[in-house]
Amino acid sequence: MPVNLTPSNTDPRPFKVAAVQAEPAWLDLDAGIAKIVNIIHEAGRRGARLVGFPELFIPGYPWTMMCNSFVDCQDILLRYAANALAVHSPQMERVCAAAREAGVWVVLGFAERAGAGMFMSQVIISSDGAIANHRRKVKVTHYEKTIFSDGEGNTIHNVVQTPFGRLGALNCWEHLQPALKIHFYAQTPQLFVGGWPPAFTPGINGAPFSVSAPCFSACSRAVAMEGGCIGVVCSQVVSERSAEVMRIAEFPWFEGAIPGGGFAAVYGPDGALLGSAKEAGVEEIVVVEVALDMVGKAKMMYDVMGTDSRHDLMHLVANGSGYNVVEYEK
User: Fold this and answer.
1) What is the CA radius of gyration of the chain?
2) The one catalytic residue among 172, 219, 229, 234
3) N or C: which end of the chain has fewer CB within 10 A?
4) Is 172 marked active-site?
5) Which domains does the chain have, with CATH numbers?
6) Is 240 a catalytic residue?
7) Residue tagged active-site, from 16, 23, 35, 55
8) Distances (CA, A) of 127 to 6, 50, 130
9) Cα dihedral sign for 103, 105, 110, 113?
10) Mean pLDDT for each 10-residue chunk of the chain (330 residues)?
């Protein structure tokens, strides 16, 4: 039986989850891994059974591509690619070892180096240090296409069974894709990690609401409510020095908003805010106690894939298989 189809957990005992709001070690793979290991251990010491990281925490989210022409930022993008993380690598093994040592499950967002290409990826790592799920962002957004490729079909399988419930993962504007969300909800997640880039105040010098922290927060909150699942929302922080390094300090949308970027929070399956970071520009691990009976109570009110659905009228057809660039005839 595929891992994403195993029965749901109904244990009502409370447990703790940790939403990370932290600054990446920009353009530095090894320093980034060291920081991740430290965060995992700290979350474990605080009693968390799950710790979630932002989108592209390794080696940081490259707003650089939107704020500059490709010619002007090519040197940064080359450094960025050189510091991306391979799934099968000593660096990933260090993250897996940290999860095992701390006894926590980890959802990590990272720039994945695969051959000469890159993907916006997430891994779900079990508390015994095994990679339970590896997925790639289904559709990269706008300027992200400059250096990242889309994920293949099997990346839509993004929910796994854990000892404390069915855990899923989404990246950024995947929260806005209706068909992908239907497939996500059909896997009956009970909690999920929503990985996001740093985001700032809407409306500064014409900045659209769609790339702001309030928008991203609302997207994850909506998924929590629609799916009837606990949302662990994770985000990055940008300091003034890092904004200079990544060449985003002079971009008009970010004027007066740096240091900032963070909006980590945990939402209940009814959309209630259970905990959040205190300041946008300060690193924090938001640890919140949750329980699966919260999911049951929410779905008594509204169950988008059950009593409140009409699958006889509308249903989704999905291609959930991967592909091979080269296939050999038999």
Assistant:
1) 19
2) 172
3) C
4) yes
5) 13-301 (3.60.110.10)
6) no
7) 55
8) 18, 9, 7
9) positive
10) 51 93 98 99 98 98 90 93 98 98 99 94 98 97 92 92 96 95 95 96 89 95 97 97 92 91 97 97 98 92 86 87 81
